[in-house]
Amino acid sequence: MKHLTNKRILLGVTGGIAAYKSAELVRRLQDQGASVRVVMTQAATEFITPLTMQALSGYPVHLNILDTETESVMGHIELARWADLILIAPASADFIARYNGGLGNDLLTTVCLAAECQIAIAPAMNQAMWSNNQTQANIRAIETSNVLLFGPESGLQACGEIGQGRLLDVDSLVQKVSQFFPSTILAGKKVLITAGPTREAIDPVRYISNHSSGKQGYAIAEAAVEAGAEVILISGPTNLTPPERIQTIDIISADDMLAAVLAELDGCDVFIGVAAVADFKPVAVAEQKIKKNSDQTVQSMRIELKENPDIIASVAKTQPRPFTVGFAAETENLTQYAKTKLKKKNLDMIIANNVADKAIGFNSENNATTIIWPTGEKVLPQMSKRNIASKIIQTIAEKLAAKTSPSDTNR
């Protein structure tokens, strides 16, 4: 089983003789299904060439903050948001000191400062440098900032000395990276997710719809399956490729989506309504294409609309009901409207996002949300929809575990 399928690992390589091991590390992470991109410090290029790392990773190696070619494709902000995990291996004493000092004087430290994802460092240095009081103070400070520490281990060093400071072997590093990603927090759970828009027919060639791309819903489906869940994705029309390891049911209209949801609801532990379901549909659908009058005069057409079924409210009323999560795509008064919807529809959780902001709205690659539940909320700043999805799934798993604990009598 590939434990890192679809995971995005940004590997930072710093200067030190252990840098040669980073080449094997790239390949081994790829063997586990990960996509790996590499950032190297200038000192690292003295030990192993960027060309080697590019050949192994399959991507250009990132070296300089002010590389105009790099900035036009993926600047340090975009690079930081791309990653699910930033792994610095090997991490030199110099890098550790600069990172702890909050410096951004090269591309790697700048990326780390801009990162919203988890950062892990794998130290590698001479045993005396590792035991130095200042290095140890830097390590303690870094650990308190929620950075993961992978190693080091003891043994014979390149300098001929024996002691702690060796880079963890590649197998151990790959194992620790695999252990970081949650793969069992929803194990044994059935998760039903809706995504994308619906289309409400006016006639055989025209319809009412919206700008939803389905990207966030698909990302949440992938995050759920990576967390060990059985996932069924009910999707409106999108241009996205159906995710692997997920049963995808394609639908067109809100009525289609409701029917599909109700058909799959049996045994469902979690329902996540991400789809942008059209609020209204035409009362009558023309059997033939509606034609303009032939006299070329200005014409108007009125379409009488009626409300579509409220899918998420319907799910929340079922018994036994799954842990029910809704989405509030708003253009104003975001938190207020989301909390009203949470209470009105009797949801366990709601995800609020501002679709008026083009940087995080429909069709964008990034998002920024607020996760709200009856007794609290969590703000997620702008990051990739993949990272947003992972954090949403982690929060759902935490709240679901609390709700279904032995002391809970509702399930």
Summarize this, please?
The chain has 411 residues and is an alpha/beta fold. It has two domains: 173 residues, Rossmann fold (3-Layer(aba) Sandwich), CATH 3.40.50; 214 residues, Rossmann fold.
Walk me through what this model shows.
There is one protein chain. The chain is α/β, with parallel strands linked by helices and 411 residues long. It folds into two domains: 173 residues, Rossmann fold (3-Layer(aba) Sandwich), CATH 3.40.50; 214 residues, Rossmann fold (3-Layer(aba) Sandwich). Strands 12-11-8-13-16-17-18-19 form an eight-stranded mixed β-sheet, with helices on both faces. Strands 2-1-3-4-5 form a five-stranded parallel β-sheet, sandwiched between helices. A two-stranded antiparallel sheet has the order 6-7. A hairpin with a 5-residue loop joins strand 9 and strand 10. The chain is elongated. The two termini are 33 Å apart.
